Amino acid sequence: MDSQDLDALAEKAADLILESRKLVVFTGAGISTESGIPDFRSPGGIWDRFDPDDFTIDKFLNNPESRRKQWHILKEGLLTDKALPNPAHDAIAELYRLDKLDCVITQNIDNLHQKAGVPGDRVFELHGNMQWAICLECGRRYPLDEIKPRLDRGEEIPDCEECRGMLKPDIVMFGEQLPVKVLEEASRRAMASDLCIVIGSTLVVYPAALMPIYAVESGAKLVIVNLSSTPMDHQAAVLIRAKAGEAMSKIAQKVKEKVGR
Ligand code: APR
């Protein structure tokens, strides 16, 4: 996308943000690729290198080899306590500081929206958060920075140091129920929004992908910032086929200028 087109589209998106009273931002893995975290369905993404069928809750609980593979996938791709927010995360935090953001609903488990400065009570993590692992026997929680060194030292299936029970990352695996209260509140916020900005998602995984649908069905306008097409592109008032960092920085900058900050 050439910079003139991007500028004009960012201008339109900024105007929609200024007019809105309840902006919900919906993010997927594509917002974190510029932080060095691979997404799932781009060429070279996680599902190009690993089989999603191995990433089900049923296999994790019942098949030690699958459990080993799932910890390996997390170690190789998603266990990123070193990742830092990129300009797209920073732009969303800026919109929060400008009092223009109701909340972020994210499919990501990387904690980068919180690291960028959006308060935890304004981030709804539909697929959990990779900051913790939980013992399924005694319930003890382990922070990520205690688990990662154990994996780096070659432990393939970390277990609970307290009771030797099975440790499970605090994320939602395929076939697993999403956290009910988070999903309920995120759905409520989406339905109450008057503007929904989708950033970095193929919008193919449910029920997460229902969020922007709920927003649009409730009358919200839709902005999509995504490098590839999505099933909702035709419903977008503004469709930006550009990198999230560049597009969101430009949008946030225009909002700041328009509010005179
Ligand atoms: N800027 C804009 N868009 C980007 C960027 C970027 N820098 N990098 C990638 N993208 C786009 C890709 O083109 C793709 O359309 O982001 C999208 C990422 O889509 P997916 O990899 O499918 O990620 P996501 O939609 O979050 O997947 C949903 O699937 O595997 C499960 O639980 C996992 O939460 C995940 C869910």
Characterise the protein shown here.
It is a single chain. The protein is of the alpha/beta class and 261 residues long. It folds into 2 domains: 1-36 and 85-127 and 178-261, TPP-binding domain (Rossmann fold, 3-Layer(aba) Sandwich), CATH 3.40.50.1220; 38-79 and 130-171, SIR2/SIRT2 'Small Domain', CATH 3.30.1600.10. It contains 10 helices and 9 strands. The strands form 2 sheets. Strands 3-2-1-7-8-9 form a 6-stranded parallel sheet, with helices on both faces. Strands 5-4-6 form a 3-stranded antiparallel sheet. Helix 1 crosses helix 10 (244-259), helix 5 (87-97) packs parallel to helix 10 and helix 8 packs parallel to helix 9. The protein is elongated. It starts with a helix and ends with a helix. The mean pLDDT is 94. Bound molecules: adenosine-5-diphosphoribose. Adenosine-5-diphosphoribose binds next to loops.
Task: Label this structure with key terms.
3-stranded antiparallel sheet; 261 residues; Rossmann fold; 9 strands; 2 domains; alpha/beta; SIR2/SIRT2 'Small Domain'; binds adenosine-5-diphosphoribose; 40% helix; elongated; 6-stranded parallel sheet
In brief, what are we looking at here?
This protein has 261 residues and is α/β, with parallel strands linked by helices. Helices cover 40% and strands 16% of the residues. The protein has helices spanning 3-19, 46-49, 57-62, 64-78, 87-97, 112-116, 144-152, 180-192, 210-217, 244-259; strands at residues 23-27, 103-106, 123-125, 128-135, 141-143, 167-171, 195-199, 221-225, 238-240.
